[in-house]
Amino acid sequence: MSINLRFILWLLFIALVGGIFYSQINSGLKVETNILKLLPETEVDPFAEKAFARFSENNFKNVIFATKSEQKSDAIAGAQFLSSKLKLSASVHSLQSQLSEEEQEAVGKLYFKHRFHLLSNSDRALLQNKGAEPFTDYTIQMAYSPLSSQLIQLLPQDPLLLSYRYLQQMSDTSFANKSPNNTTDHSSEFIDDILVIYSDGAYYSMITATLAASPFDSDAQASIRQILEGFQLNHPNTELLFTGAIFYAQHAAASAKSEISTIGLGSLIGVILLLIIAFRSVLPLTLTLVSLGVGILAGFTAVNAFFGSIHILTLVFGSSLVGVAVDYAFHYFASANESKRPLPIIFGAISLGLVSSVIGYAALFTTPFPGLQQMALFCATGLVGAYLTVILLFDRVPSKVQTPHKLLLVFIAHSRISHSASKKPFLLALLALPLIALWLLMNTSDDNDNIRQLQSVPPALHQQEKTIQDLVSAPAPNQFFVVKGPSPDQVLTKLESVNDQLDGLIAQGAIDDYHHAAHFVPSSTQQESDYRLVRRHTNPTTLQTLLELGLITSKQLEKLVQSISESQSNVLTLNNWLASPLGQRFSYLWLDKIDGEYAAIITLHNINDITALESLADNNSTLYFINKVEKVSSLFSQYRELSLIMLAIAIALIMLVLAVRYNLIVASLIVLGPIIAASVAITANIVINSSFNLFSALALFLVFGIGIDYGLFYAESKKRSPYIYLAIGLSAMTTFLSFGLLSLSATPAIHAFGLTMLSGILTVFVLSPILGHQIYQAKGLKHDSST
Amino acid sequence: MMTTLTQYTAFLLLIASCFIPSTANACVDTPCELNSIAKQISSQPQLNEFKQLKTVAVLTQPLKSSGYLLLADNDRVVWQTQKPIKSTTVIGPNSFKQYNKQDEAISAPANSNNQTSQLISSTFLSILSGDFEELNTNFDVIAICKSSGWSLNLTSTHSDIQRVIKHIEVSGNTSIQRLTFTEANGDITQITFDTIDSQEIHAQLGQFLVD
C-alpha cells in the first residue's frame, strides 16, 4: 500500500474519530463518578437489583451533620447557622424536621378517623388479655392530669384513647432516638426543631438534609463544601461532623482527578524525556505524541459512544495506557536506526502484539462488569488508534534517527549479562516460581475482594460516620430486607408476619431496631380483626367507670356505639397514609410497583450480626436480604477466580497460535517469560499487601500482553539486532513509569493494579533477553555480532 | 359558663379585698425579684397533700381529685393521685414515667421526644421545685410580693406552650399553696397544696424514685 494512500486512510480515521468526538462535545460530555456505576448487577433476581437502586437513590441523597461543643448554646447556635445556610442552598432539597403543627394535626386527624381499626401490638395483647380496664384506668389518669382538656374533648368519641395511644406508640417506634448507650450521661431533646444530644461530656446538634441532586454531582459537592467552609470560619470553636455519600464521592472524585494528572502527566514527561534521549530528534517525539494523542482520543470517544459516559476511574486507569501505546512508536524508531523503511521489519511483531493485547482486553470485555468493560474498551481502542497511526502515518513523515551509541551500549551490556545467565539450570530453577505463587494463592484469604477497593476512604470521614451512627440510629444504607407481593395489602400482611422474627433479632442483639410500612398502616386483615376486638370492648359495662365520673355521658356512649358499627369498612389504606405528612417522610419504606409486583423494605438499624440476618432470610421465603457490600465482595472473588481461569485459557490459545507459527520450543519460550512474571507479581502482592485481589488478577492480563510482545520481538526478528534491546528497554521504562505511578494511587484497587504491573513488567524485562537468547538459538540465529 | 363564673367571683373577691382597710397596704403591688421568692420557699417541705379541681367546658361537672406530691432532692417529683383512682407520675429533668393503680409502669406515652410535652413537663417541674429562674426562658413572669405571701403570673412566650397553656398563676408564702393553670381553650385547673408530715406516705412515694 502506497505511503500516500495510507496517509489518506489515516486522515479518514482521524476525521471519523474526531467527528464523533465533536458531536459528543456538542451533546455534552459526561464524566461519571458514582462507583456503583462500575459494578455489575449483583443480584441474580433483577427485582432485588431494582429494589436496591430505588432505595439507594434516595438514601444516597441523605446528609447528616452534627455540630459538637461542650457548650450547649454553641452547639445549637452552630446548628441554626448551618441549617439557615442549607435552607438557602439550591443543592439542598429539604431539611428533615419535626412535623409542623399543621402536619401533626393532619396526621392526628387521619389516625383519629380510623381509630377503631388501629391497635398497636402491645395494646392488642392488653385488650385481649385484660379487657378494657387498663385502657379506662389510663383514660382517667390522663383526664385528671393538670393539662388534659384537649384529651378530654376526645373522650366522647374515643373513650379508650385509641387514636392517642396508637399515635404515641408510633412516634415512639419511629422517632425515638434509640441509642445503644442509653445511660444517664446520654440524653437527647428537641430544641427549636433541632435534635440536641448530650453524650460523653459534649453536646451534639443534629441536622439531616436531603440533597436536590445526585451526591455525585460536582456542583452539589462544591456548594456543600462551600457551606462547610463558611461554617468553620464563623464557628471556629464548634466542631462540625458530617456524613453522607456526597462526602465520600467528593473525596473519591478529587483523588481520582489528581491521580489522572499525576499519572498521565508523569508518564507523558517520562516518554518525552526518553524519546529525546534515545532518538535525539524532534520529529520522532512529535510523531510519538501524535500516536498517543490519537490513541487516547480513540479510547475516550469509543467508551463515550458505547457507554454514554466515561467513568473517572476509567480515565485514571486509561492514563496509564500511555505507557503501553507508546511501544509501537518505540519499535518503529528503534528500527529506524538501521533501516530507512523500518515498518516492514517491525510490522509482524507489532501487529501480533496488538492482536495478543486485544485478545487479552476482549477477555476482560466479556466479563459482565461495566467498570472492566469500560477499561478494556478504552485500552483496546486506544491501542488500535496508536497502532494505526504508526503504520499509516509514520512512513509519510520520514525521519532520520540516530540513537546515541552510549545508550545502545547500556542495552547491549544488559543483553550480554543476560546471555551469561541464559543457562538451562537457571531456566529450570525459574519454574519453581509458579509453584511458589500457586502455593501462596491457595493459602491467602480472599477477604480483600471488597467494594471498598474501588474507593479510597479517608480515615477522618470514616471516624465521623461512626460517631454520628453512635449518636443517631440511621438505617443501614447497604443492608435491608425486601418483601414483595401481588398487592399492597399482601405486602403489609407479609411485613406483619415477620415482626416476631425481627423482634427476635433485636432481642439477640443482631440489630438495634427496624422499621417498615406496616408499623404505620396495618394490613386490612389486621385492621378488621382489631376493629372487631375494639367493638366487643366498647359498651356501657366496660365504660362503667368513665360514665360514673362523668367523662362520658350515656347519650354520648350510645352515639359512639352507633358510629363504631357504622365505620366497619373504614380501613386506613396505604395510599391514605402515603399522602399524609407522615407517609411523605417515610415514603422510602414503600418501593411501590417493581416489575408488576409491590415491594416494601424493612430498614435495619445498627447491624451487629450480619449472619443472623442472612440465616433469617434463608429460612423465611418472604424476606429477601439485600447486602450490597457482601454481594459485591463475593462477586469480586468469583471474578478473580474466573479471570485467572480465563487467563489460563488465553495462554493456552496463544501458545497454540505460536506453536503453529513457530514451533513448540519457541512458543514455550515466548510464554515462559509472562508466566514467570505473573508468578513474581502474585508473590509480590501477597508479600506486600498480604492479599491477591481481583484487580491484581486483571493486571496480569496486561503483564501477559506486554510480556508476549517482548518475546514476539525476538521471535519475529530475522537477525539478532541491538535495536530490539533498545525498543524493549524503552518500552519497559515507560511501562514502569506509568504503572509505577499507578501503584501510588490512594484507591486500593488501582494501587494493587499498579504494583502487579510494576513487578510483572520488571520481571518480563529482566527475563526477555535471557529467553531471547534461547529463542535465537532455537531459531538457529547466530549470536549478535553487530558491536 | 362555669369558667366565667369562677373567674368573675375571683375578680369580685379581689376588688372587695382592696376596699377593706387593713394594716398593710395589701393592694399596692410590690414587684419583687424571683430569687427572693425562691429563697423564701427553699424551705419547701418535701411532702404535700394536694386537691385539684378541674373545670372543663365540655363536662357538666368539674373533675375533683386529690393525692400527694413528693419533691425529691435530685430535681425529681412524684405526683400521686389517690382519688378517684390511684395513679403515679414521676417527672425528672429528662424523664417522665407513669404508673397505674397496681403501681405497674405504663409504657404507652414515651413522649420524652415530643418537644411540647417536654417543655410542659419541665415547666411543671420548675414550678413545683421552686426553680423560678428557669421559667423566664419561656414565660413573661410578673412577680408580686405582699405581706401575706407572693404570687407569680406567668404568660407563655413560647408558641409550643401557648398551644396548650394560656397562663399560670402560682401563689404561696413559705411554700407553694396554690397553682392555677388556664389552658388554651379556657379550661382551668386549680390545685391547692397543704404540707403534711407522714413517714408512711413519704416512704410509699419514695419507692417510685428507686430505679
Automatic annotation (TrEMBL), chain A:
Transmembrane feature ranges: 260-279, 286-306, 312-330, 342-363, 375-394, 425-442, 642-660, 667-688, 694-715, 722-744, 750-772
Species annotation: Kangiella taiwanensis
Transmembrane helix keyword on record: yes
UniProt membrane topology term: Multi-pass membrane protein
UniProt-annotated location(s): Cell membrane
Name used for this protein in its record: MMPL family transporter
Residue ranges annotated for the Membrane transport protein MMPL domain, each copy included: 202-329
Cross-referenced Pfam families: MMPL (PF03176)
Keywords: Cell membrane, Membrane, Transmembrane, Transmembrane helix
From TrEMBL, chain B:
Residues annotated as signal peptide: 1-26
Domain of life per record: Bacteria
UniProt KW S-adenosyl-L-methionine keyword: no
Pfam families associated with the record: LolA
Keyword Transport attached: yes
Keyword annotations from UniProtKB, A to Z: Protein transport, Signal, Transport
SUPFAM superfamilies, per the entry: Prokaryotic lipoproteins and lipoprotein localization factors
Complexes and interactors: Monomer.
Name of the protein in its database record: Outer membrane lipoprotein carrier protein LolA
Organism: Kangiella taiwanensis
